[in-house]
Request: fold
Amino acid sequence: MIRRLIFVLASVFLLAACAIAETPSPTATPPPKIGSCALGEFSTDEAAITAVLNAEGQLVAEKNINMLMNLWAADAVVSDVMHTPNDPADDDHWRGADAIRQRYVYRVFPGAPSEAHPKTLEIAVSGAEAVVTGTTRIGDEVSPGGDRWQLRRVENCWIILGLEFNRES
Reply:
């Protein structure tokens, strides 16, 4: 009888421990919102995409690397096409989130841009993919049509997959 009681009590404690372990903590921090979802709700894909690119420029000016990286896919690529868009041999690439973070911190932020907003955006959405060609102004430098962004919709959030800059000849 005592063995049976010990067995029953041990079983109850074991089941209770499993239930506690599987119950999510009410104080658990939800994962950070990514891309356009970190910026609000938008009525159109074009508005969400524009918000992402405007936020990228604003966050560059603010040097807010953590929020900036929430706009990018983990496997994104940034490419400097060196003003020769038809000759990939001279391109410089930053592949993946770590390399892109390094680029911002060590190459972009030290230039202390006070403004880096895209202008004159041409947005082409095809399903869950988008390509955006834009003129970017970074301080006094204006690059007409010099940037091409690639974005993808992931769970209704638009994130940046890639950027090619210095596309103008």
